[in-house]
Amino acid sequence: MSSSSDHPSYIHDVFLNFRGEDTRDRLISHLYAALSNAGINTFLDDMNLKMGDELPEILDAIELSRISVIVFSKGYTQSSWCLSELVKIMECHIDGQVVVPLFYDVDPTVVRHQTGDFGKALIANANKQYLRKDLLSNWRNALIKAANLSGWDANKFRNESELVKQIVEDVLAKLDNTFLSITEFPVGLESHVQKVTDFIDQSNKVCMVGIWGMGGSGKTTTAKAIYNRIHRNFEGRTSFIRNIREICEIDSRGIIHIQQQLLSDVLKTNEKIHSIELGKTKIEKTLRGKKAFIVLDDVTKSEQLEALCPNPKLFRSGSVMIITTRDARLLNSLGVKHVFTMTEMDENQSLELFSWHAFRQPSPREDFSDLSRNVVAYCGGLPLALEVLGSYLTGRTEQEWRSALLKLEKIPNDQVQQKLRISYDGLEDYTLKDIFLDICCFFIGKNRADVTEILNDCGFYADIGIAVLIERSLVKVEKKNNKLQIHDLLRDMGRAIVGESSPKEPEKHSRLWFPDDVVEVLTKYTGTETIEGLILKSQRIDKFCFSTNSFKKMKKLRLLQLDCVDLTGDFGYLSKQLRWVNWQRSTFNYIPNDFDLGNLIVFELKYSNVEQVWKENKLLQKLKILNLSHSKHLKSTPDFSKLPNLEKLIMKDCQSLSEVHSSIGDLKNILLINLKDCTSLGNLPTEIYQLASVKILILSGCSNIDKLEEDIGKMKSLTTIAAKNTGVKQVPVSIVRSKSIRYISLCGYEGLSRDVFPSIIRSWMSPTMNSLAHIPPFGGMSTSLVSLNVDSRNLGLVYQSPLLGSGSKLRSISIQCDSESQLKQEFKRFLDDLYGAGLNEVGTSHASQISVLSLRSLLIRIGSCDIVIDNLGKSLSQGMATNSSDSFLLGDNYCSWLAYKCEGPSVLFQVPEDSDRCMKGITLCVFYSSTHENLANECLPSVLIINYTKFTIQIYKRDIVMSFNDEDWQSVLSNLGAGDNVEIFIAIGHGFAVKETTVYLIYEQSNDMEVQPSVVK
Fold this sequence. Notes:
Blueprint: E1 12-17, H1 20-37, E2 42-44, H2 45-48, H3 55-63, E3 65-72, H4 80-94, E4 98-103, H5 108-113, H6 116-128, H7 135-147, E5 152-153, H8 160-175, H9 189-202, E6 207-212, H10 219-230, E7 238-241, H11 244-250, H12 254-267, H13 276-287, E8 293-299, H14 302-308, E9 320-325, H15 328-333, E10 338-341, H16 347-359, H17 369-379, H18 383-393, H19 398-410, H20 414-425, H21 430-443, H22 448-457, H23 462-471, E11 476-477, E12 484-485, H24 488-499, E13 511-512, H25 515-524, E14 533-537, E15 544-547, E16 559-563, E17 565-568, E18 580-584, E19 602-604, E20 625-627, E21 648-650, E22 672-674, E23 696-698, E24 720-722, H26 733-737, E25 743-746, E26 749-752, H27 753-765, E27 797-798, E28 812-816, H28 820-835, E29 855-863, H29 866-881, E30 896-903, E31 906-910, H30 915-918, E32 919-930, E33 942-947, E34 952-956, H31 966-973, E35 981-987, E36 992-1003, E37 1015-1016
Parallel strand pairs: 1-2, 1-3, 3-4, 4-5, 6-9, 6-10, 7-8, 8-9, 13-14, 14-16, 15-17, 16-18, 18-19, 19-20, 20-21, 21-22, 22-23, 23-24, 24-25, 30-37
Antiparallel strand pairs: 11-12, 25-26, 27-28, 28-34, 29-32, 30-36, 31-35, 32-36, 33-34, 33-35
Helix pairs in contact: 1-8, 3-4, 4-7, 6-7, 9-10, 12-13, 16-17, 16-18, 20-24, 21-23, 21-24
């Protein structure tokens, strides 16, 4: 490489100034070789001039070099030759030559102040030149100026090789005429560049990166900085093509010119192209198998990408392509996996960038601090606006700043708007533009789904339309609440577009939002058919009041928002095309009968004085959203029979509301019912539980609601139930059985269902325990193992056919795990909760350490084995007489049986073959002891049947183990497969200790199976 040819006055790239005795052998030869190998034309005075050559020839060589590198060493000032060259170099520096010092074995401060031996040698050298009395002063000045320049300090490098490598890279960067100019004040730029280059460095394939964001967000600047950082790694096969959109719009052959530029940059030739297709073929052929770096800036159409990048897979591994665009869909179509989104600058960065442009310093002047922050807030973190307005306001008076801010509220800066408007002008059809303008004027902060419903009915195809606006960086959607947002400057641009055709005649605008304009039109009755939307919020203490006659000519009015505004007169004058009415703080007691709402999609009547919604029910076929929140005088909901397509009913904080009309059961499409803080509302009508479509039910703060019916389980689509701070004392079992509920707040439990349902179940199993909402689900199982969906691929907490008793409580629970170790862990967790203390190991509780004061017995029947219970009862009486259970067995004249006996609270056995065909039941015989405090108490155990083969635990709680019914038995039997390893555990609370447990498996006499009485200990 030799960049000296780029300028006719340059012959050399680099001039090296050094004292040979100090540096030649150790450094200069190494440095000169490295510079030459890099293609840098380097001048060495002692190699290019023969002995006896005059100094002027060397001084000419300095003038003809683009860069001078000064190597300061300890003995540098001993050479008058070096010092004379230095004076000439600093003179050339004034004329624009790049000068870089290298401090080799000498500290920069020593050079700057000429101290120690370095300074003494300088004076001594000057004294020898007795004919030049001004020489010392010239040398000193040159040394000071050179030492103050940015350069290299050899002491900061680990070795000479690293130093030389750094010098060569820096020289290449300074010589490289392919470097792109970037912003003068790159505030915050480095972090963007670093993120992208880090990603590129980690990629070993063809790396495609998209830089996406709204106009003026810094996409091009970031791409240029990345290009400057890495383009030297591609051996000249690089191309940065700017302003593709603009080139294609100006020239019909623009895409062909861009193809030629791309080939010229990569091949270094001026190859002509006569058609786009030919260009695509040549680009494919040229780039096939090559490592290249290409930046395509401001791409707006897929045809541009197809013409310039027909097949990125043809590139060699290590190639990089960066595409900047305002349209995310273009990146998706090309398969770009890594998209870097340009975000707004934070407040500190914004203030710094603005200050550089307004004051030429990193922070505002003290007397302009508040004004500067106001401008920065207006810019909303957009770099373009910060730069433009900063430059516009620089040097102006405080009064001019204030005037400019007032003007910006109504008339946005034209330079900023032109840049932003490119995205709007690029929208293909009127529906996209209408959607954008409606959002700018009316729907910022509104729910996307609601706005979509409204605009769809206006004929705007808003599902796809809003998606396109998001892709084009014109609209954003908050992930948390699905609300639409627009950058303030884009909002102002959209509003300016609405009024640009007739800025002084608001009645000719399609949308009215500026209060003065709206008041003028309504006061002067100048409304026209042009007006499609109107919004007026009173800024005064008293309300606005207008005649409905003001709306008579607004036949196309679709969107209406009023706040603290009264209308008097015939409501029939209001447009029959209204799709959205948002009327806050209305004063009428009921909606006027002559108000035609037949086309209404959304009706919001918040903070109203209505006591009754309609006096006469009207069929509102299209109404999907009804919001009557904060209407404190409303006593009952409307009759819903005339609202067949209602999807959202919102009646928050209606403090007088005491009744929900039973016709709510007619709402087959309802998705949301929000009755939060309706403190006078009693229990819900039973019809509400038939609504299979409801997804969200909000009752929080309804303190008079004290019961939720079990029929709530019929709400099959219910995903969220929020009912905290109500009078409800018990969670309905059907809620826990639900497969759809994902979030619940009720009875002190709040959170995701997978987290709180286990705690609810534990509280049922241990009635004496307090609310366990704080306990993590079954010992903190990972969410992948806790699921309310029965799915063999996602093992976890499942509810298998809960059996309901007369009290409508859950009778049995089955916990399914993915391993034996986890099963034992969950078993231990259950016992920890039951006993209120940790266990040393599964099956050994603190209760077993109780002193034995008396021995008691307990028989538990599971299945059809009454005769066995009777026989065991007699034997039990005999055995207990001797306070022993050693001979406590069944006789041979009854059903066939197998007995398994163990000390302690559990028995482990293997289920025999064919047990599912002839097993009639299971009888448990338990001997236990108790403390003084529990002598008079009845033992109420829980039974746990643990299947180690199937990894399941079946739990039967205390109040039903003494009354197992046929359904319970079938539940047990279904979990006992032939050959399964099973353990039955008797769980008793504090004060009881199980001494011995016997399990009897009872069988029918059968020809297929001969069961011999036996005991396994």
